[in-house]
Amino acid sequence: MNRWLLPEDIADVLPARARKIEELRRRSLDLYQSYGYELVSPPLLEFLDSLLTGTGSDLNLQTFKLVDQLSGRTLGLRADITPQVARIDAHLLNREGVTRLCYAGSVARVRTPPGSTSREEMQLGAEIYGHSGWEADLEAIQLLLKTLSQAGIGKIYLDLSHAGVLKGILGNLVLSHADTETLYTLLQTKDRPSLAQWVSQFAPSISKPLLALLQLNGACAEVLANARSGPLALPSQSLIEQSLKDLERLIEAISRLSDQLELSLDLADLRGYQYHSGVMFAAYVDGLPQPIARGGRYDHVGQAFGRSRPATGFSLDLLTLADLSTISIKRQAILAPWSDDPALNRRIAELRAEGEVVIQVHKGDDAHSEEFECQRELVKQGTGWELKSRA
């Protein structure tokens, strides 16, 4: 067995790509800091019951588990950082008013997520706690769009939905865990024949709008109009009406953020339905079949930690973003010989202090690198060293 082989769908991040990921991480966290977000760094491992709190079963099957030899309790290797940040807000910071938190760290999954090629990701995200209004959702979306823009991503397709629509349709109907998962899957896959057969067990007041959700997608104005009147109209119910109003107001504000943005609605896109409580959104870009980022409102996650707080935010995978990013991470560098010449070493120290990259090489070494272009070199002139262009 080759000792250098890694587990399936686990890979090293090599030079150039690693530098690009780090550059995007720094730019993004600096952007979030400019909005007042504070950086947190939760642990890789937590007790499993804490790690899965508030997330339903969504993360359970994706979480690596092991036994803590000190306590005998089961630990989990995080598959998502968002619940950890909710715990920090609710249990550790315990502040009144609005709290803005951001993070960047590794997550691992038992199985490779659909559309991905790796079970390990570098998750980047920003969360706002303590504000229940649409303004917080707008700020989260604005930050997401700026994150993608500064990575060199051009056209962005933002798809919105709202968890309140399905809650309003179901009303007082309580579904078992298995039925909830079935409904969720049928809506996600837009399997109309199977959904029609499955919802036949319910009254038309529930089955008809559930089927209508499959067609309520596309241009925002058209979807909202169809959801309110006509053959696809959803029930006249307060939660549904408020959900549509929330979407309408948010869409109006988002449409002014960027001319490189295309908005759409898909009221059947309820990925993470058990996790979210309000507006939900997914960002798509050219060249990637799955969303580059997902986010939305999840007001009830902190409740399991003893403090229910309004919350909204987003997250994305930095490794995927780096692969799509058009920014250049090539830096100009200066070549210098290995030498114990004090004058040379002083000059190298001066240049590095000025922010220059100086690479010392042996004679004949070309200093091959994917990160640096060496178009200048230090050449000895008399008793000193001068900066010259390389021939």
Please write out the topology.
Layout: H1 17-34, E1 38-39, E2 45-47, H2 48-51, E3 64-67, E4 74-77, H3 82-93, E5 99-108, E6 120-129, H4 134-150, E7 156-162, H5 163-170, H6 177-189, H7 192-199, H8 204-213, E8 217-218, H9 220-228, H10 238-254, E9 261-266, E10 279-285, E11 293-297, E12 311-317, H11 318-324, E13 331-337, H12 342-353, E14 357-361, E15 372-381, E16 384-389
Parallel strand pairs: 1-5, 7-9, 13-14, 13-15
Antiparallel strand pairs: 2-4, 3-4, 5-6, 6-12, 7-10, 8-9, 10-11, 11-12, 15-16
Helix pairs in contact: 1-4, 1-11, 4-10, 5-10, 7-8, 9-10
Span between N and C termini? 48 Å
Total domains:
3
- CATH second-level architecture of the largest domain: 2-Layer Sandwich
| Stretches with pLDDT under 50, minimum 5 residues | none
| Elements, N to C (H/E) | HEEHEEHEEHEHHHHEHHEEEEHEHEEE
In terms of DSSP E residues, the strand content is 15-25%
Question: Which structural class best describes the helix and strand composition?
Answer: alpha+beta
- Count of β-strands: 16
The total count of helices amounts to 12
Give the spatial strand order of the biggest sheet.
Answer: 1-5-6-12-11-10-7-9-8
Mean pLDDT: 91
Backbone shape: elongated
CA-based gyration radius = 26 Å
Helical fraction: 25-40%
CATH class identity of the largest domain: Alpha Beta
CATH superfamily of the largest domain: Bira Bifunctional Protein, Domain 2
Biggest pleated sheet = 9 strands, mixed
What fold name stands as the CATH topology of the largest domain? Answer: BirA Bifunctional Protein, domain 2
